[in-house]
Amino acid sequence: MRHRVAVKKMNRPTGHRKALQRNLMISIIEHRGITTTEAKARAIRPEVEKLITLGREDTAHNRRMALSKLNSKKAMNKLFEVAAAYAGRNGGYTRIVKMGYRKGDAAEMARIELV
What we know:
The chain is α+β, with helices and mostly antiparallel strands. It has a single domain (14-114), classed as CATH 3.90.1030.10. 50% of the residues lie in helices and 17% in strands. The chain has a 3-stranded antiparallel beta sheet with strand order 1-3-2. The protein is globular and about 45 Å long.
């Protein structure tokens, strides 16, 4: 049973998982989309959605919160530029498109992008 399991661990230690999530979030914000495995795309989607919701209102507090999640001033500034376009939208900022299987290990690949 998976009662009260809050986070997808992706078979990684905590520090590695947090660094992976941070790098994926930065890449999605900077490039407006990335191609990765479906499991990683599904795990990172809620985090990116929360960041964009945070970035819709440009305040000092929200900038500090975003910086604590991203650890990159360049990505944080880009987040607030990108999030301004979603001011009238109530969620659903990302899209996951399945792309088939990877040739090497047959992992299910997906593209996660900003709508």
